[in-house]
Design a protein that fits this description.
- The chain is globular, with a radius of gyration of 18 Å.
- It has one domain.
- It is mainly β.
Length: about 280
């Protein structure tokens, strides 16, 4: 499949139903927890992408501009306000979508995303804290706190970041909700020396816990690092395990590096191909 230049976060926010599994009810039932973990993860990835683009557009905090044709925000939507002059830290950036407008990536959003920066993104020690206020994406309410900490260089001399999401709650159009907490290490393995975003590649490890829309608690563990290429909508490789309370562990394998929307779901002796949301 040809690579798509949309931002990495767009993959899930366009859908609240997510994985479609092989025309079998069994597959759909087994996939529900995987769906909900993926939805929560990607709503918060999308939130970061919005912050990234708003910061880049305003020359703020060391972000580079993404010239993707899919970014359709107008000059008046959203309104971006800083608490201090540019170059002054700490600084709070408020992205205000008002009562609703079509903005970044052609998605309808309303409410506010509020981000506090202690320093520029690429500076070791910088902490970016992202929160929401009455924030909705295509009618789905997204609540929680995302904290990004620049940990400097790791043993491989790559910049890496602690990514922690706490008290996340995704309220779906049906009224059901997903709660979620996550801790990740995101290693910047390619593209750091160029101004483009689309050649950036990250290697992601970590874990998550949550409660799916059916009130079933679950845990998630990345057992083979996920590879996220910024010029592809989907994770291109890596493996994670998801274990709903009282049920078998299911494995999601994202493939061998090809940019496509397919992954393999395995539960016990049952294996099927699932389609990742677009």
């Amino acid at each position: 499949m040809k690579k798509n230049l949309k931002n990495f976060a767009l993959a899930v926010v366009l859908s609240t139903t997510a994985f479609v599994a092989c025309n079998k009810d069994t597959a759909n039932n087994e996939a529900q927890t995987s769906i909900d973990n993926g939805l929560a993860d990607n709503y918060f990835n999308d939130m970061y992408a919005v912050v990234n683009n708003a910061a880049a557009d305003n020359g703020f905090a060391g972000f580079m501009s993404d010239n993707s044709a899919n970014k359709t925000a107008s000059s008046s939507c959203p309104e971006v306000i800083f608490s201090e002059p540019l170059g002054t830290f700490p600084n709070t950036m408020t992205i205000d979508f008002g009562d609703g407008c079509i903005s970044y990536f052609g998605i309808e959003r309303k409410g506010k995303i509020i981000s506090t920066f202690t320093g520029p993104y690429k500076d070791a020690g910088t902490i970016i804290t992202i929160t929401t206020e009455d924030y909705y994406v295509n009618g789905v309410q997204v609540e929680g706190i995302k904290t990004i900490t620049n940990l400097g260089l790791n043993d491989a001399d790559n910049m890496h970041f602690s990514i922690v999401v706490t008290d996340a709650k995704i309220t779906l159009l049906s009224g059901a909700d997903i709660t979620w907490n996550s801790e990740r290490d995101r290693e910047w393995v390619e593209g750091i020396s160029t101004p483009e975003i689309t050649d950036d590649v990250y290697s992601i490890t970590g874990s998550a816990t949550g409660i799916n829309r059916d009130d079933i608690p679950f845990t998630m563990l990345i057992i083979e690092a996920l590879r996220k290429e910024m010029d592809c909508n989907w994770i291109v490789s890596g493996v994670c395990e998801i274990t709903p309370d009282g049920e078998e562990t299911r494995t999601i394998n994202y493939g061998d590096g090809e940019c496509d929307n397919e992954a393999t779901l395995t539960v016990g002796g049952f294996t099927t191909t699932i389609e990742l949301p677009f």
